[in-house]
Amino acid sequence: MIFPVIVCFLYSTETYAQTAEQYNNWGQAKSLRGDWKGAVVDYTKAIELDPNYIQVYGNRAYARNILEDYKGVVEDYSKIIELDPDKYSAYYGRALAYGKLGKYKEQVYDLNKYIEHDPKSFFAYLARGDVKTVLGDYEGAIQDYTKNIELDPQSGMGYRNRAIAEFKLGKTDAGCKDMSKAGELGFVLADDYLKKYCAE
Question: Domain extents for the chain?
């Protein structure tokens, strides 16, 4: 009896990939497996095939963030903003990357742009307050934390961070009140601050 000869060829994904969408799909599959470097390679190939494919820039930015490639994250979100200035979520993503790079003025700019689009974004006010604290603008930070608390009354982080800014300005009574509230909302180190700043 003669058996047919079966020839098997092993192909990489590159053999079959012909479109940006296919590379994007493979990048997403690799991301799900935790292969972030491989995902970046596929997303980059997708972008080479279609430089205007906005979704891929967002996917690659996410993968690069996991890999702590914050310059790459800034690059991808900047490209999204260039392609579509109304993609305000890109401003927030880029702001976080700028923070990791220590570019705080650029971070404030991007958070300003994001808040212009979504003035009820309580987390954006919290983030901007944190940057202003780093920059030593404690009054500005207090304003942002106050807005954060107005939008999210259960914001323990808002109360805690506002208290710290108030302590920096010597506003002890206000700081003690806020830190006490932060403790009520679950901030475990509140007692340490209260002992340091509020002990009679």
Answer: 119-200
Q: How far apart are CA 27 and CA 143, in angstroms?
A: 42
119-200, CATH topology level: 1.25.40
| Percent helix, strand and coil across the chain, each to the nearest 5 | 70, 0, 30
Distance CA 157, CA 186 (A): 9
- Gyration radius of the chain's alpha carbons: 24
What pLDDT digit, counting tens, does each position of 11-41 carry? Answer: 344 544 589 999 999 999 999 999 999 999 9
Q: Is pLDDT larger for residue 17 or for residue 111?
A: 111
Helices 104-117 and 122-134: crossing angle in degrees, nearest 10, is 160
Q: Token pair of 119, please? A: 């003035």
Residue 161 has pLDDT above 70, yes or no: yes
Residue of 22, 44, 40, 23 lying closest to 31 (CA atoms)? 40
pLDDT, one tens digit per residue, over 44-98 is 999 999 999 999 999 999 999 999 999 999 999 999 999 999 999 999 999 999 9
Q: How far is Cα 62 from Cα 101, in angstroms, rounded to an integer?
A: 16
44 CB burial (10 A radius; 0-12, 13-18, 19+)? middle
